[in-house]
## 1
Amino acid sequence: MPTDLTLLTSWYSDWRGLRVLVAGAGVTGFAVADTLAELGAHVVIAADAIDSLRANMCEVIGVDVALTTPSEPVPPGVSDFDAEVLVVSPGYAPHHPLIQWATERGIAVWGDIDLAWRVRDKVRVADWILVTGTNGKTTTTQLTAAMLAEAGFRVAPCGNIGVSVLDAVRDPAGFDVFVVELSSFQLHYASGLEPFAAVCLNIAEDHLDWHGSMDAYVGAKARVYSHTRVACVFNRADARTLAMVEQAEVVEGARAIGIGLDTPGLSDLGIVDGILCDRAFLEDRRDRALELTTIDELREHGLASPHIVVDILAAAALARSYGVSPESISVALSTFTLDRHRYETVASRDGVTWIDDSKATNPHAADASLRANESVVWIVGGLLKGVVIDALVERHASRLRGAVIIGRERHLIREAFGRHAPELHVVDIDSDDTSEVMALAVRAANAMAVEGDVVLLAPAAASMDQFADYAERGRLFREAVLSQMGGEADDESASRQS
């Protein structure tokens, strides 16, 4: 007899015997399989590959693995299983043959976030604060968690940030609150969540190859606000985020909280005379505002770049909605450091500053980095993910000293420069050798740069065509820069985030 899935709303529901197919054998897929096996479900993982450690662990916990291929995306081990539910890892696009096969057969399709929400009461029920956006998700998630922790809450940053929500749910110590970073992929499959607060930081073209259209991408991001209970934080500089809030079905009483680099209105956070202010979470907000920190203080900690300040305001809004004091926010910011490869100053010599923003994996992120500098030698390129780069090139052509193009889609970027900056000095790095691509790019950039310039690695593209990930791309950039300078930088601020 088929399981009534509407009854599976708790860790303590009867999951025994439920037949679940799990798509993917990475961090997410294994966490899903491990959780379901613990609950007593029958589980099969379908994946194109699985590492030996996870394969051995699957054998231990009683999970079968069916390997798929492009020619056989639904092998007999999958089709014969008679699954009732397919739980999808975020990398599986809706048009993937396995997803289509399941949908055609009426198999319920969940994301890992759906499962985590259903079983969130294993230890104790934590509040969920959701963070999404085209850019800034990880930084905002980490900032929010740091502010909550400073206020004494037991908090877990999790989700797309690298720690599975399911692993956080199963932590025996339990948490007061999860700050969950969600990608558009995860949101596409998510349903039924009721977050305490949520933010969509910004929206720009990204992952169009996965979603199929900009409308579908925006629609996925907008799901972050569904059934929010207390605070829907939006970016005043991005009208689409406000429209998402206005169109969202939220719990009665949930407030719209605007954030931005301008003067805050009522129920907003913003900046007045270099002071970050809260006019949302105080009784007499018509007449005054609360000081959170200042731009000068942020500059001392390498956090004053405009796009980082927006992330700080978003995190502060989320934290304030949960009752964190301005004093705790200020203290948390005084000790916070950005992750590597996020607008990180690598070195400075002879008046040229070298900045690693390898995490700028789409044009919107690269735009923020380029805007922060007046004269740039730009290292750009990688997998564009279906996004056109022309507008970015046209917008910043006047600030470019030159450009160095890397990646396997170099021709598309070269053509964009030809259309919008035909006189610009542009160098193609015609190599797919991971060990030499960045060394050649740094050498070419160094030949162009003059005193006062910034050499900026802000690729506006994903890294997987030539590198394992954005972190490897950034690490090799740093190594190439320091090698070019004889092994070390001559500026004591090298390696600090700007």
## 2
Amino acid sequence: MNYKFFDISDRTISFNFSDNIDQTINSKIVEISFEIDKKRRHLDIVSCYPTYNSLVIDYDPINIERNVIINRISELIDNFEFKNSNSDELLEIDVNYGGGYGEDLKSVSEITNLSEKEVIKIHSSVIYHVYMIGFSPGFPYLGGLNKKLICPRLDSPRQVVPAGSVGIADKQTGIYPFESSGGWRLIGRTDENLFDNNLVSPSILKPGMKLKFNEI
């Protein structure tokens, strides 16, 4: 894989593999990130996590020099043997669509020129790819949204978005694990707990997984 790297801060380096959002590239980045995470102590890094098209490495500049980190990570990437770039791990989540659960379903219907029932049917018929977890703990950025459902963010973000809200923003869909502010258009809500601090791995969704919404 071709890549370039640049500094995000004095202790964070991003290895960028593409300027585009691509599921195949993202799956490979996720696979590499799992391997690096297992070896992070040996590599002297603090953390490693994938984004849409990059691999972000955090390190402690007091303990290790930037060039050493770059050389170690570059060597691992250059010699990495990909085994399974597409995870078949699937999580299905039940969603109440519309009404008090998804107050923007009507506006999404109007923007897309689809009925509310059609929006629900299309949104719940796709198996989504988890590109990355971010914004808040456990928040999944999901790729694979049908082009018919592309909608802009709200002009003014809400101060309060209920936990479990399922939203659409541009070409993405996602779930708010916690009550927070947010500007995505809300079309439904789930009771699924996406993040639990009592678990060894608190986020039940991980990059590379698949997710499907089921209407209830």
## 3
Amino acid sequence: MWLLLAVAALRLVTMALLPMSDTTEPRYAETARLMAESGDWITPWFEPGVPFWGKPPLAFWAQAASIELFGLSDFVVRLPSWLVMAAIVWLTMHLARALGGDALSRLSGLVLASMALVFIGAGAVMTDPFLAFGTTLSLASLALVSLGNTRPWRWMFFVGLAVGLLAKGPLTLVLVGLPAGLWALCSRAGRRALRTLPWLGGAVLTLAAVVPWYVVAESKTPGFLDYFLIGEHFRRFVTPGWEGDLYGSAHHEIRGTIWLFLLWAGFPWSLIAAALSVRWLARWRARAGRTDALFTAQAPLLLLATLTPIAFFSFAGNILWTYALPSLPFLAILIARELLPTLEHRKFRIACALMAALVPLTVTGAGLYLSVRPERLDSAAPLLTALRREPGGESERLHFVGRIPFSARYYSRGRAQSMSAETLADLVRDPSHRLFLAVRNDDLPSVVDLLGEHYELRFRGARHSLLVPRIQDGDQGVHAFLTKR
């Protein structure tokens, strides 16, 4: 338990120290910042005047509320993800305790918290933890109801659906409905649990929590429902490299890649799961009799909850490794149950502790290194820091030649601007503008040749470099300032 708490606390360290790297984190952080700044809690905004139709608002509500409560900082925007991931770990431990006792509960929590995607995602600005919380809440509630724990879990099943629908959308119904329905088909306990749920009241609760926002969002920015329901949930799924994405670029992976993503997301414990799968398959074929509850009535639900997201996304090419997150809580319980008997031996306890420490220590060490060498990150944060050291280096005077990265929008608080190549040519003809330029490193030689002696290089990052106006002989004020500094 102390090791589990240490893992949870360790993630807080780099949340405060490490700048956000493009593209996911600063994109969602800027959306949350705009929500808090504008006071518009209905429509998330991609940028002023451009609504963000790609996700429902729950994650942005949480992040914007955190900004309102504590002020704007990287740690504050990341905090809701940490809290939601902690809630997922708690739910997993609560279910494991009901299935197999305190020892299984603690080990399940430790396995889950030290998985790569869970540890990294706990300190990152993402929407996936909120979806995973919703699906975990619904399926864990169903399992607890089957064990006789009806209050308040009969209603928490529907609360989980509402959370998922406001976090990611109708995908929640698939990730909850498929394992629940298949479990009911193959298990009497599953059918009993589903009959126990208050379907009428629960449906009313879910619809009352979800539908008003969808209706108001469509009326406020017409076209949202078509893009979100048809584009994001159908075209994105069936079309690899979907070109209709309004907010970035779609991902094109070989179908079935999600299985590799599961190994990555659950590392290092997923390697044990891969080895144990042979034993699980043999046990299933032999229908080996076991008396504990975990491997009788609830085993199919745990297995189905683990496999459903992976099987579903096996048919999609437009995927990310974060799509494996809803599988991990239930996979953690299955792994912990197999490992628990081995912990009677000291060498296995040490091995388990080392595995639990592997990802947290590696990620934290890398994060600490990058926090002192931020120029190695694909982030505009160190460039903005270098800009502020310059006389007159306000964010409003910073222009990115070409497309402005999301991290620049976030760290400049929306003040940095973009500049086309044609505008840059005009700048050469009238150097009195004295702007600060951020240039992609690939374009730097040609831009430096174009600008000539009017600008000099002051900072070089992983992707962008900062060019500042060169001091002229007549700039006595600026020259005196620099000399004094």
## 4
Amino acid sequence: MSYDNEKDVFSRGCLQVYTGNGKGKTTAAIGLTVRALGAGMKVFFGQFVKSGEYSEITILASLKNLVLRQYGTEGFIMGHPGASDIEAASRGVRDAMDALAGGNFGLVVLDEVNVAYSLGMISLPEILAIVSARGNRTELVMTGRGAPPELLEAADLVTEMREVKHYFRTGLKARKGIES
């Protein structure tokens, strides 16, 4: 299917998926968020599995027309997610559905939602319900490793970040302003 960009630029939202084991999925979603805000769009940005004050959260929280929510608990999930992790992810699914149903947002970003899925915190039917809830004029971005094949099939755009080389492997820790 082809699109007339002049006609369709704000009349059709797409589903974008950023996945893979490489660095840059959240960074790409934040870049698109800044672009959308610069164009006057209202943005919902929900972060699954993450909580806390990362450098990007500090700046994003200060921007107008952006609703920012985190659906993670303290610390990394080691092994199986606990009840509080699952409840936080369920809250994220409910908020995402509300954001999509309301039609108030031009862009909805669900950062690390694929990780929440791959950890068993949310189900494939929930992922597909989120996709189905998207209106024609809402762009939906879903990020994180482990995107299910059904999501990749439904997407209009899939970008797989692939690690070729990473300085973490040499022992370099996360640096404020670059990784955190």
